[in-house]
Design brief:
With about 280 residues, the chain is an alpha/beta fold. About 45% of the residues lie in helices and about 15% in strands. It has a 7-stranded mixed β-sheet, with helices on both faces. It is globular and about 55 Å long.
């Protein structure tokens, strides 16, 4: 039974897609079977794995607005990638209009909880994957609400110079409201800093500030800024494929361990990869 993890921040440019892709790749290299779901119309995650909306013909309405009865009806939305243990449910620019479709269908359905349909549909395939990672749009919408409802855990990357306290408070409130409304147990797993340019005085001050502000919700693992991240995005290669020894890759591995996503057996497989033994 897989665990569903959503990466959400109402601000763009915080490394959300990079975080989702890199953590998915770390888990996949370790031997876990991972499904990546791209719900961002910008399609960064989709493009990383060679998919483009010119070749995609996905009727998202069936996934978000219809309760499917068979696993096969959900699996048909999913494609294999060139990377072992990584499958993808690709995005397209049609996601921009899907938010209005979900809203309209929700109004038409009256008391029916359409926000839970994605959760139901993903439950049909949970036995096929160890982890389902969702990369969400930075824009708050019905699409994001569906993703939150479908998730077991929410993780938020933030930048020192691109931080929204109000946005985070709004996300906490949304999770609490949805848990109460639908009797769910969605967990906010934490906030972590990305694109950290060295352990500067500003970084130390902001780290202490966030730690005091958010307590245990603030994760003590930060992702250092390095040129390999930008270069891997430019060449459309996942980070560990491009440079498995870069500082950001090391930090993401530490984050995966801190979040408790990997056991010792799988970590040994990752260590073999990092040493070049496989």
């Amino acid at each position: 039974m897989s665990e569903v993890i959503s990466f959400i921040n109402e601000k763009g440019g915080v490394g959300k897609s990079t975080s989702a892709i890199t953590i998915a790749q770390i888990l996949a290299i370790s031997g876990y079977n991972v499904l990546l779901i791209d719900l961002d119309p910008q399609m960064n995650t989709t493009k990383m794995f060679g998919q483009t909306d010119e070749v995609l013909d996905i009727n998202y309405e069936h996934l978000f607005c219809t309760k499917q009865l068979r696993k096969s009806s959900v699996l048909e939305f999913i494609s294999a990638t060139d990377y072992k243990n990584i499958s993808i449910l690709s995005a397209s620019r049609e996601l921009s209009t899907l938010v209005y479709t979900i809203y309209d269908r929700s109004k038409e359905a009256g008391g029916t909880n359409i926000e839970l349909y994605l959760r139901h549909n993903l439950s049909l395939i949970k036995d096929d994957f160890d982890y389902i990672i969702i990369d969400n749009s930075p824009f708050k919408s019905y699409l994001t609400t569906c993703a939150i409802c479908a998730s077991d855990k929410i993780v938020t990357p933030i930048c020192v110079d691109n931080f929204s306290y109000d946005g985070l408070m709004s996300l906490f409130d949304t999770i609490e409201d949805l848990n109460s409304k639908y009797s769910l147990a969605i967990e906010f797993a934490g906030i972590f800093m990305t694109r950290v340019a060295g352990r500067t005085t500003l970084y130390k001050q902001m780290f202490e500030s966030y730690e005091n502000m958010f307590g245990e919700k603030f994760l003590p693992v930060s992702i250092r800024n390095c040129i390999a991240v930008s270069e891997s995005n430019t060449t459309f290669e996942p980070l560990l494929t491009y440079d498995k020894r870069c500082t950001a890759a090391q930090d993401y591995i530490e984050l995966v361990n801190y979040l408790g996503l990997m056991d010792n057996k799988h970590y040994r497989e990752l260590a073999k990869y990092l040493k070049g033994e496989r």
